[in-house]
Amino acid sequence: MASITIRKLDEQTKARLRVRAAHRKRSMEDEARNILRVALADEAAVPHNLAEAIQRRFRPLGGVELSLPVREPMREPPLGKLEVVSDFLPGPEDLVFRDEGVKVTLALSKRSVEFFKNQAEKHNTQYQRMIRRLLDAYAEHHSRTPAAGSKRTHKRAA
Fold first, then answer.
1. Quick one: residue 136, left, alpha or beta (phi over 0 = left, psi -120 to 50 = alpha)?
2. What is the pLDDT of residue 44?
3. Residue 68 lies in a domain
4. How confident is the model at residue 95 (pLDDT cuts 50, 70, 90)?
5. Exposure string (b/e) for 79-98, b if CB count within 10 Å is 16 or more?
6. CA–CA separation, 25 and 31 (whole Å)
7. Integer Cα distance of 23 and 30 in angstroms
8. Which residue has the higher pLDDT, 66 or 96?
9. Cβ distance 27 to 21 under 8 Å?
10. What's the rounded mean pLDDT across residues 115-136?
11. Banded model confidence at residue 26, pLDDT cuts 50, 70, 90
């Protein structure tokens, strides 16, 4: 058996333990052991589940049979005025990325890259994807427009 020593026990608690032990015809040591045993046994019996605690609390009162009320059938919710919307989503075949990708290395200005990075963060996408789509749109636009010659003039090296 293990032993413990309790220090700094106030005089009032010690006096109450002595009186309680005398009423039960026990020694103070035996009464302290019994108090600890009972207190810790009650703590161990406390269920961790709220439903179990409630059930244990009311079990001595007996069970009760409750009659369930008859329920109405479920009603249709009011929908109001409906409007048929034509299918506007692309078909699965239109979602396939058909263009073959070609990897290239570009030297871009720091200002341009920072712009695309900031915009990509705002729109939750990749900045490289935004640059690719911009270049694709540019190429698509200029491939449809007949080339009438460049408006820029180039200086030739002399």
1. alpha
2. 61
3. no
4. low
5. eeeeeeeeeeeeeeeeeeee
6. 9
7. 13
8. 66
9. yes
10. 87
11. very high
* Integer Cα distance of 20 and 134 in angstroms: 89
The candidate with the shortest Cα–Cα distance to 118, out of 130, 104, 136, is 130
Residue 110 placed within a domain: yes
* pLDDT value of residue 94: 67
Angle in degrees, 0-180, between the axes of helices 28-44 and 11-23, rounded to the nearest 10: 90
- The answer to the question of residue 123 being in a domain is yes
Residue 17, domain extent: 11-57
Amino acid making up residue 127: Y
**Six-digit token pair at 116?**
């695309």
* CB within 8 Å of 9: residues ≥ 6 apart: none
* Cα–Cα dist 146/141, whole Å: 10
Name the strand (E) or helix (H) holding 136. Answer: helix 127-144
For residue 83, being part of any structural domain is answered with no
Report the Cα 41 to chain-centroid distance in Å: 39
- How many distinct structural domains can be found in the chain? 2
